[in-house]
Design goal:
CATH superfamily of chain A: Winged helix-like DNA-binding domain superfamily/Winged helix DNA-binding domain
Strand content of chain A: 5-15%
Shape of chain B: elongated
Helix content of chain A: 55-70%
Largest interface: A-B, 24 and 27 residues
CATH class of chain A: Mainly Alpha
Structural class of chain B: mainly alpha
Strand order of the largest sheet of chain A: 1-3-2
Distance between the termini of chain B: 26 Å
Strand content of chain B: under 5%
Number of strands of chain B: 0
CATH architecture of chain A: Orthogonal Bundle
Radius of gyration of chain B: 25 Å
CATH topology of chain A: Arc Repressor Mutant, subunit A
Order of helices and strands of chain B: HHHHHHH
Number of helices of chain B: 7
Oligomer: heterodimer
Largest sheet of chain B: none
Number of domains of chain A: 1
Structural class of chain A: alpha+beta
Shape of chain A: elongated
Number of helices of chain A: 4
Radius of gyration of chain A: 16 Å
């Protein structure tokens, strides 16, 4: 897949994962890898940007049996943004699907 | 290249584009990534391979975040100083690299790094002392005035106070105040960055859980 194309979509995927439950970096990367072929190094910058834009908050949780983990959580703003973008994306893919079918 | 070397290199590159505090935060994230990766049965080399070169990683970070063309340098006196120290450090290690064997080098670089860090820390302490001195002076002067007021009443205090403030005090105080402000600003960044670094070190080097062993079985 084209990298430029994939980049925009990755935002939505990351938000979709975190909308389900709070997740830590490694978890997000490996979960994402099970769906899409991404490199590890692309995910962290995205997480950082979305946090900076106010869509995520982070908290560090120390656990007794694992290392300390930085968890990402959607903010109210993030939830609203995610819903808007996801609907937009769904409408877009339906339109593209339709176009492809009709052209064939 | 192992994990420590990789992260050190990454810190070098990141610190050129991001503030001290943000740099430590970014390094923290990748420290965590290493620890998690290894807890999941990967080797250091495999994790590094997944992440790619530190230079490329920083480029990706910059591309995503696009920081406003570096921060205002005029105020970050200490940070600029730190950069100079780093440059010097690099030069020194480079000269050593030519002279000594690889095994000695590791040790020497470590000592050098520690030395330069000690110098930086020393400078920080001096800066703190200067600020404390200024603050104490202000307190002293203030207390002196109060004392004068109690003993001499309004008239004398106003006379002496005005003389002090207008003819000598004001300009010096203002100068020191501005200097203090600058120092405090860059110092606070410094202190926060060091605290973060210590936290990261504690979380991922000292306090590492025995989880790895369980996973390897």
């Amino acid at each position: 897949m084209q990298t430029q194309f994939k980049k925009g979509v990755l935002d939505i995927c990351v938000m979709a994962l975190i909308a389900k439950k709070d997740m830590y970096g490694y978890e997000i990367v490996s979960e994402l890898l099970s769906y899409i072929d991404v490199t590890e190094s692309t995910v962290y910058p995205i997480l950082r940007r979305l946090t900076k834009e106010g869509f995520f908050t982070t908290y560090i949780q120390e656990s007794s049996e694992g290392p300390a983990r930085k968890y990402y959580q959607l903010t109210q703003e993030g939830i609203a943004h995610y819903q808007a973008v996801a609907t937009e994306w769904q409408a877009f893919t339906v339109a593209v699907q339709k176009l492809l079918q009709e052209v064939q | 290249m192992n994990r420590a070397e990789y992260l050190e290199l990454l810190r070098d590159y990141v610190s050129q584009r991001f503030s001290l505090v943000e740099t430590e935060d970014i390094i923290r994230d990748y420290e965590e990534f290493f620890v998690e990766g290894m807890a999941n049965g990967k080797t250091e080399a495999e994790v590094i391979q997944g992440l790619g070169s530190p230079k490329l990683l920083v480029e990706q970070l910059v591309e995503e975040l696009q920081p406003p063309k570096q921060q205002s340098k005029t105020t970050d006196v200490l940070q600029t100083g730190n950069r100079y120290i780093k440059k010097l450090q690099k030069k020194l290690t480079h000269t050593l690299q030519i002279k000594s064997t690889t095994k000695q080098l590791g040790c020497m670089t470590r000592i050098l790094r520690l030395m330069t860090q000690c110098i930086a820390l020393g400078l920080t302490v001096v800066a703190i002392a200067v600020i404390l001195f200024i603050i104490m002076n202000m307190v002293w002067t203030g207390l002196g005035m109060v004392g004068l007021f109690i003993v001499g009443g309004y008239f004398l205090t106003a006379n002496v106070g005005l003389g002090m403030v207008f003819f000598s005090g004001a300009s010096i105080c203002l100068g020191f105040f501005l200097l203090g402000l600058v120092c405090v600003r860059s110092l606070s960044n410094y202190v926060i960055a060091y605290i973060k670094r210590a936290q990261t070190w504690w979380h991922y080097h000292v306090n590492q859980a025995p989880k790895e062993e369980i996973d390897h079985e």
